[in-house]
Specification:
455 residues; alpha/beta; Aspartate Aminotransferase, domain 2; 4-stranded antiparallel sheet; 15 helices; 40% helix
Length: 455
């Protein structure tokens, strides 16, 4: 055995204690850590022929790389709808690495059963039916890709072909309809061979990012044969919601696969005051939910749900002599692009077991309250104005200033991190509230920074 490896094995308890103490110090210092760190200009160094051991590697990381890491786990990192990691989720993440389960088969472990239990908890949380099966994937992009791949196979079923066997060319012309699709939908269509250009955007309701259901019906009436409809439960800029129940009702007259992108908006189901926004989600054929957003588990973790696991198996099944046959309740390598993967479900299991639905409801409602407080506080920032009502946890606004310079100044202040966007042709800023630590005081602190920078 390599001498460094042997020494680290002997010193493993002390190494883990050192890592624990360092990690605890990082988390304790999040309030002072810059939300967006300036990246030092570090040239890559050659791979060392002889290593230095884990303790020295930790020291090198602390000195060389850690200073350039952002405070994205903290309460004022308001970009990209990024959550953090609840204490229980972090425990689960550490144990995920400790047990190192390849969570795809029941042949050697109960890891798959833990994932099934976790999926059941999430299905209940989002109000989905028992007909919806689910599987963990890396994030919203892969969740959307899996859902649309199943939808693509459904189109083939309607036309008497199997895309999984015959290829996308056998499918013929495909129409995908959506009002305000996330960029990952286009990416998924490109990867699936359907093509970005096959997505037709449908007119929206006035002053909204929600689809006009009458316009959608007209588009369905014009379509030649079955189509895929991508509905949105929480758009990126304004967290707007399509009328899911009204869209689902159109299937009484028109055949289509209903995929709902509920990456973070699905968590509205936890709040009694906002659950109506996802009314009708259970009617979807496939659903995307991103867990490293509002569930506050570490990257990377998302879940995809579908009513047609049989079609999912048709697309993703993996046949080999050493693998199980995809019958009944199939092993997980038959359900996603990955043949092997870490036990992503463990972080979600830990945070759900630790805090339950009520604990996560409190996070969601506190974040919503902070977003509204931030929106109201913009009235005190010279030249600032909301571009949309604060519907949930994202505030879309603009300021009568040089926005790139303002964003840079906010980031350099270390107080917050915001992201740019464009809303209805207007250059804008987004503040996304989804971290389990974030509250009213953080909203006030960011408003104070904006006010100081533009005054």
């Amino acid at each position: 055995m390599d001498s460094n490896l042997a020494a680290d094995l002997a010193d493993l308890p002390d190494l883990l204690t050192a890592a624990r103490d360092y990690a605890a110090g990082v988390l304790d210092g999040l309030d002072e850590r810059p939300a967006a760190a300036s990246r030092p200009d570090l040239a890559p160094v050659p791979l060392p022929a002889a290593g230095v051991g884990a303790a020295k590697a930790l020291e090198l990381f602390r000195e060389r790389w850690a200073p350039g890491f952002s405070g994205s786990a903290g309460p004022r990192y308001l970009g990209f709808v990024t959550g953090g990691a609840t204490p229980a989720a972090l425990v689960g993440d550490w144990l995920t690495g400790t047990f190192d389960q390849n969570a795809v088969t029941r042949l050697d472990s109960s890891a798959v059963d833990l994932e099934r239990e976790t999926v059941g908890w999430l299905r209940s949380m989002f109000g989905l039916s028992d007909a919806h099966t689910g599987t963990f994937v890396t994030g919203a992009t892969m969740s959307n890709t899996v859902g649309l791949a199943i939808g693509r196979e459904w189109l083939g079923e309607r036309r008497g072909v199997s895309v999984a066997r015959q290829g996308v060319g056998a499918l013929g012309e495909v129409a995908v309809l959506s009002g305000s699709p996330h960029s990952s939908i286009y990416k998924a269509l490109a990867m699936l061979g359907v093509g970005r250009d096959q997505l037709r955007t449908v007119p929206l309701l006035p002053e909204r990012e929600a689809v006009d259901v009458e316009a959608l019906e007209a588009a369905l009436a014009e379509a030649a044969g079955p189509v895929i409809v991508v509905a949105n439960a929480g758009t990126v800029n304004t967290v707007d919601f399509d009328d899911l129940r009204a869209i689902a009702a159109l299937r009484e007259r028109y055949p289509f696969w209903l995929h709902v992108d509920a990456a973070f908006g699905g968590f509205a189901a936890l709040s009694p005051a906002h659950a109506h926004l996802v009314d009708g989600l259970a009617a979807a054929d496939s659903v995307c939910v991103d867990l490293h957003k509002w569930l506050n588990v570490p990257y990377d973790a998302a879940v995809q749900f579908t009513r047609r696991q049989d079609l999912q198996v048709s697309v993703f099944q993996n046949s080999a002599a050493y693998l199980t046959v995809p019958a009944g309740d199939p092993d997980l390598f038959h359900l996603t692009p990955e043949n092997s993967r870490r036990l992503r479900a463990l972080t979600a299991w830990f945070t759900l077991a630790a805090y339950g639905a009520d604990g996560h409801r409190e996070i969601v409602e506190r974040n919503i309250a902070a977003a509204r407080r931030f929106g109201e506080g913009l009235a005190t920032v010279p030249g600032a104005r909301l571009l949309s009502p604060v519907r949930l946890n994202v505030v879309c606004f603009t300021v009568d200033r040089d926005l790139p310079a303002l964003l840079d100044a906010v980031a350099r202040s270390g107080e917050a991190f915001l992201t740019p966007t464009v809303h209805r042709g207007v250059p804008a800023l987004r503040a996304a509230f989804s971290n389990w630590r974030t509250g009213a005081a953080d909203a006030d602190r960011v408003i104070a920074v904006l006010r100081e920078l533009v005054s």
